[in-house]
Automatic annotation (TrEMBL):
UniProt keyword annotations, A-Z: Cell membrane, Membrane, Transmembrane, Transmembrane helix
Protein known as: Biopolymer transporter ExbD
Keyword Membrane: yes
Predominant place of localization: membrane
Coiled coil segments of this chain: none
An MF annotation (GO) of this entry: transmembrane transporter activity
Membrane topology: Single-pass membrane protein
Gene3D superfamilies: 3.30.420.270
Localization (cell): Cell membrane
One Pfam family this sequence matches: ExbD
Transmembrane listed as a keyword: yes
GO CC list: plasma membrane
InterPro entries: ExbD
Length: 52
């Protein structure tokens, strides 16, 4: 986030996060909090269908 300029940040409409089984819940919450503290409000979590 530190490399994104204010102008670039204002152009970003939606942030999409996609994790995997290796990411901890606490890390996901930390990333969400960081995004919100930096002004991002439209945050989507991408999921995948598990087949089998």
């Amino acid at each position: 986030l530190s490399t994104i300029t204010e102008e670039e940040r204002s152009d970003i409409k939606t942030v999409v996060l996609e994790g995997d089984r290796g990411i901890s819940y606490s890390l996901l919450i930390e990333v969400l909090d960081l995004l919100r503290r930096n002004g991002f409000r439209a945050i989507n979590l991408r999921t995948r269908e598990i087949r089998g």
